[in-house]
Amino acid sequence: MALPEFATIGQLYRALIGKIRELGPSIFIGDPSRQVAADAREYFGSKVFQSVVPRNVRLAEAPSFGKPIILYDVASVGAKAYMGVAKELIERSPVAAKAKIQSA
Q1: What DSSP character marks residue 53?
Q2: Number of Cβ atoms within 10 Å of the Cβ of 3
Q3: Residue 70: inside a domain
Q4: Which of 9, 28, 44, 46 is the most buried (most CB within 10 A)?
């Protein structure tokens, strides 16, 4: 996928959104109910990421300090959850799949 050197956020979004959708949905819990997560897993099956991002005070505070959670408090539950999502995203990416095939 070729993008201009100075692509806008909108251009990046349009170019990548289809690819991201192919990788699967993630579950972000803002509600203590686990029924939504169970329903999503039942409907989407193995496409749903295993990592769950729970509601977290540190996650809520980070934007007011102008920082992503990884810089605001890397040891927080929310930061660790997002790192779990990132790891799964990388593992599911076409590049990772290609690397696994080549190493076999």
Answers
A1: E
A2: 11
A3: yes
A4: 28
The pLDDT tens digits for 4-56 are 555 565 665 666 666 666 666 666 555 546 777 788 788 888 888 888 888 88
**94 in a domain, yes or no?**
yes
**Locus of tokens 């692509």:** 7
- Compute CA 22 distance to the chain's CA centroid, rounded to the nearest angstrom: 13
* Coil, strand or helix at 29: coil
Structural domains in the chain (count): 1
CA distance 54 to 31: 9
Q: Which domain holds residue 44?
A: 18-103
